Amino acid sequence: MTWVSFFQQIMNGVSLGSLYALLAIGYTLVYGILGFINFAHGDVFMLGAYFSFFMIGVFLLPWWLGVIIGVALCAIVGMSIERIAYRPLRDAPRISALITAVGVSFFIENLGLVTVGARPKGFPRPELMKNVYILAGARIQGVTFWVPIISVSVLLVLLYLVYRTKMGMAMRAVSKDMETTRLMGVDIDRIILYTFALGSALAGIGGVLWACKYPQINPLMGTFPGWKAFTAAVVGGIGNVVGAMVGGFIIGLTEIMIVAFFPGLSGYRDAFVFTILIIFLLVKPSGILGETLKEKV
Amino acid sequence: MGREEKRDLALTLILFAVLMLGVSLAERYLNTYLIRILNTACIYVVAAVAYNLINGITGQFSLGPNGFMAIGGYTVAILMLPLVQKEQVYFLQPLIWPFNSFSFPSHLFLLALFLGGVAAALAALLIGIPTLRLRGDYLAIATFGFGEIINVLANNFIPLTNGALGIKGIPEYTNLWWTVNWAFWSVFMIKGLVNSSFGRALKAIRENEVAAEAMGVNLFRHKLLSFVLSGFFAGVAGGLFVTLISTVSPSLFTFTMTFNLLIIIVLGGLGSITGSVVTAFIFAFLQEILREVEAPITIGAWTFPGIPGMRMVVFSVLLVVMMIFYRRGLFGDKEISWQLIIDRIKGRNESEK
Amino acid sequence: MKVKNKEPLLSLENLTVAFGGLVAVSDFSLQLFSGDLVGLIGPNGAGKTTVFNLITGQYRPTKGRVIFQGKDITGFSPDLVTTVGIARTFQNIRLFGNLTVLENVLVSFHVRLQSSFLAPMFSLPSYWREEKAIRREAYDLLEAVGLADVTKEEAQSLPYGEQRRLEIARALATHPSLLLLDEPAAGMNPQETRELMEFIKKMRDDFNLTIFLIEHDMKVVMGICERIAVMDFGMKIAEGTPEEIRNNPRVIEAYLGVED
After folding, report:
1. A134 touches chain C (CB under 8 A)
2. For a pLDDT cut of 70, what percent of chain A falls above it?
């Protein structure tokens, strides 16, 4: 492999990894606070792509405006899911919440199949993403260049929100100890809604960027990225925001590198992510940055 | 064995005899459409009861039954497919050794089903060992991934699975005799386990892991036992399924299969084995009825176009609504027992007097 | 401190545990002899329950050893600790809520079951013989603790006092030689507390037990324990007879403002 193509692959891996990171944050935030896997998160990612698609393609809005509205709609969907499906189950056994999450996920996917059909649709890409750049001798596609830049910027904004704002502090407090935080007079329900809005908006942005990178969108497009992003959150240490980002990049780079070095195994790239998950669960279940959780007796 | 247990066993065996009589009548008088639904229902019983063992009884959330059914299904298909058929089906790449050199005759069908179960159980062991030691939902995420990975392997490992084309022409050995027997004996065995000291240990894990462990229950070994057994019966169900429809392909055991089973066990009551039996039958028929909904409907002069896929929308709404408003399902974690039936009959007689 | 020549049943040697830099228990040592009824008291957050968790394997000590019947059991998993003969109850009751009273107790017999899981699956007579035997034993036990009338009730439907008693019965069913009771009288009125203490004493004599119990309320412990250890801020600050503890200035200081 030449240096140029190696560089290209690295860019590809970073680009894919940043998308996983965007998606992984939503999983890790919800898991940190409510303690269950929000299976519907990958489907909100899909909705981000579709909402924007309709805003741009059907309502003929300018690209940037369509995406902003699409992402905002994702935040609303995320909050609605929490309000309608998850909040009534907050004190129920955890398995009930998990089953509900699976139900919500399946509902969104099948509603998508019924309304827009299974046939993939072409996602409109802005000129910016179509350009080709020459960087250190390597030809880099606009998407490969801009996707990581945009998503890393978004991730930096998120870090600011989580670690430097009052709301972020409240979120972290709720995930550490919900009861005590409630006793301190914090409105837990509002914090949780905010968490869902934030996570879903990130998923929406991820969905749009994903659609720029792979411009064929379909109602099931969120399943695999969603599952890999959750794996990324586990690898990074579930509940830890920085960990989710680190995990995302690790998964993205590994996936791209395996395909780059062993093209014959490209059909099995998903299986490798599964292997990484199993290895982590065996060797370091708390993840890279996570702490070992032990139930209080 | 106490008096009550002896009575229950006798009644159960009578029920079995009645069922067998029913099967011979059904085979003769029922139309193929109804028989097909009954077969499907019985296979759902096997898979759902196994799924309830890990999810409802033990309280560990698995999303893997579609993967285990796929393993069982492919195993049985490869073992039972006649040699001639093997040469025709695997035209892209020849089937790997040793499977290209032999084929099970029909009288080894039971053995093939058993081996399908064992293969699935081994897969469950491999996933269970890393995940079941950990607290939390790692089982859910690992089994969900596993189901998808099996799909990837089925599509890509062509010399074994024939890829996306799948395997056609599997002998149709499965009939009502097979499905009813497997449904009956699976329920018999799993209910026997659930009602025993092992079942109590599994339920104790579901109720309170810390306390169960403090009472001497080895959490890991018991969760693994439950998960592996669950995998075994799911594998058998997969094997029955492919020999019922005589074909297997990667699209047969998708996540939708797991979702269907989830609906069945939630509807019947997480933790109620007999509840799952009842709802497996309800589900099999409901699925057929809702198939009509998806077809175009003509009422008078208007024709409404059918909406394919609407069934799954209905089912997913049903699942979420159930979880929010009616979490117990039909039977909660209670079983339909002979004692219960006898009490009911006695109660009715007394009220009539 | 009483000096005995015989080997201690349980010996805690310099137990220390830290959670992320926070030392919860530090250099805790204590010996229990067969037949003892020892109390562990101290203000809230002193680390009493953590000591229990270190003995029963819920937590692994950062330093120190747990010796039981001359055997080092440090780092054993909770289920193994139970099999060597240590049983416990929990501060916040942890019954199997949806199981019946009888089933709650039967769970504790599971660890000594001989049959393999295949025996009940195939309804083998060997399994039924075993099941019959453990059921009889469980009934006897429930009779002994006065719960024979409610064997078929769901555990979660019992009144509070009976739930506490069921927890003790469930622990006894594991055939322990050492029983750890974590605030058994929590949430009870003085009358109920007195009854419970009598019950605990009776259990010790009937079942030949050694009992180690945590109590928040000093008065309760004074009534029944022959020896008391006092903890504050993760450390043992005193040990002795109730009389000695009552007059110990360090104990009075630790409890100042908490007790009248």
Report:
1. no
2. 97
